[in-house]
Amino acid sequence: MAAAAEQQQQQQQQGFRPLDEASLVAYIKATPALAARLGGSLDALTIKEVGDGNLNFVYIVLSDAGSVVIKQALPYIRCVGDSWPMTRERAYFEASALQKHRGLCPDHVPEVYHFDRAMSLIGMRYIEPPHIILRKGLIAGVEYPLLAEHMADYMAKTLFFTSLLYNSTTDHKKGVAQYCDNVEMCRLTEQVVFSDPYMLAKYNRCTSPFLDNDAAAVREDAELKLEIAELKSMFIERAQALLHGDLHTGSIMVTPDSTQVIDPEFAFYGPMGYDIGAFLGNLILAYFSQDGHADQANDRKAYKKWILKTIEDSWNLFHKKFVELWNKHKDGNGEAYLPPIYNSSELLCLAQKKYMTSLFHDSLGFGSAKMIRRIVGIAHVEDFESIEDASKRASCERRALNCAKAILKGRRQFESIGQVIVHVQSFDRD
Amino acid sequence: MAAAAEQQQQQQQQGFRPLDEASLVAYIKATPALAARLGGSLDALTIKEVGDGNLNFVYIVLSDAGSVVIKQALPYIRCVGDSWPMTRERAYFEASALQKHRGLCPDHVPEVYHFDRAMSLIGMRYIEPPHIILRKGLIAGVEYPLLAEHMADYMAKTLFFTSLLYNSTTDHKKGVAQYCDNVEMCRLTEQVVFSDPYMLAKYNRCTSPFLDNDAAAVREDAELKLEIAELKSMFIERAQALLHGDLHTGSIMVTPDSTQVIDPEFAFYGPMGYDIGAFLGNLILAYFSQDGHADQANDRKAYKKWILKTIEDSWNLFHKKFVELWNKHKDGNGEAYLPPIYNSSELLCLAQKKYMTSLFHDSLGFGSAKMIRRIVGIAHVEDFESIEDASKRASCERRALNCAKAILKGRRQFESIGQVIVHVQSFDRD
Question: Where does ATP bind (chains A, B)?
Answer without folding.
Answer: 52-56, 71, 125-127, 263-265
